[in-house]
Amino acid sequence: MVLRITHTLLFSALLALSIPKVQAQEFLASVQVNAAKENIAQSDKQVFQTLQTEVQQFINNRRWTEVQVAPNERIRISLFFNIESTNERNEMKSSLQVQITRPVYGSMYTSTLLSFTDEDCYFTYREFDPLDYQENQNLNDLTSLIAFYLNIALGVEFDSYGENAGKPYFAKAQNIVNTMGTTIGWMQTDGKGMRNRFYLAESFNNPRFAPIHELYYSYHREGMDQFHEDPVAGRAAISESLKALEDFNRSVPNSMIQKVFFQTKWPEIVEIYKGANPAEQASILKLLSSLDPSNTQRYEKIRS
Fold it and tell me: CB–CB of 173/151 below 8 Å?
């Protein structure tokens, strides 16, 4: 995916411009299914290979939006299923690691937009059964799960190019949560603490968390996309984007979505500020210690 073209794509979609191009699906997904647990019979292994192939094809071969996408504009998302158990009814419990990335303008570097681990994935899969999805319905727990994370991916991707541009996709993710109701894995009591689908969707849709959407735009479009041509200006814009989070952090301390952002971004932030001068490093370390105290020790690597 070439950033220049992707940038044009997203803003063309927002402005409803008509640009002739070869139409393609929106995603270029990489899917892995691991079933190495000792309690899973070796005879079942082929089922998981089929599952991996079919999920990847389901994502990559389907249209998920009305946006016109050229082949080199497709959104990169990786899904790693770690199957923990299965039974004779083909019911599976799995964790799921989701990572969404976007390229940085003028460089070969890709920036991770979201890295999230879902501990409570339950679905039924019979080998070679067709995978299908319809909005406002739960045809299959697995495809509803996938559609949820694809809409989150569309949301953060669009947010990183246009202010609040991901709103329609976050709303779709919330609608899936509502449709699933009290299905296990979709409730506010599932997962570890508030780190679950219920609160991920709620956080991206709650007006109180508007500064997070602003952060996605200013950090990436105004900061990272400048960084290749002008590291000083790009780093300054990133600093301003993080400073803008201070009031939000005071009013909504320790929010799940803020923790997810920094858990995703801390390795990148460390590398960005290694090139800063000592005064700038001291300033950002002080700020990060208040915004993301759990990673304070990791941020000390900025001085190395």
Answer: yes
Q: Is the pTM of this model over 0.85?
A: yes
Instruction: Name the residue with tokens 């400073």.
Output: 243
Residue 292's alpha-carbon distances to 94, 154, 200, in angstroms, are 29, 25, 18
- Residue that the structure tokens 């050229």 belong to: 70
**Tens of each residue's pLDDT in the chain, 304 residues:** 434 434 544 544 444 444 444 456 889 999 999 998 877 876 678 999 999 999 999 999 999 999 887 777 789 999 999 999 999 999 999 999 999 999 999 889 999 999 999 999 999 999 999 999 999 999 999 999 999 999 999 999 999 999 999 999 999 999 999 999 999 999 998 877 778 999 999 999 999 999 999 999 999 999 999 998 999 999 999 999 999 999 999 999 989 999 999 999 999 999 999 999 999 999 999 999 999 999 999 999 999 8
Cα 193 to Cα 34, 81, 218: the distances in Å are 25, 21, 29
Task: Report the candidate in 115, 118, 45, 114 with the shortest Cα–Cα distance to residue 86.
Answer: 45
The residue behind tokens 């041509």 is 229
H or E stretch at 199? helix 197-205
| 200-225 b/e (C-beta count within 10 Å ≥ 16 → b) | bbbbbbbeebebbbbbbbbbbbbbbb
Give which of 179, 172, 250, 182 is closest to 204, Cα–Cα: 172
Residue partners of 294: CB distance under 8 A and separation at least 6: 259, 262
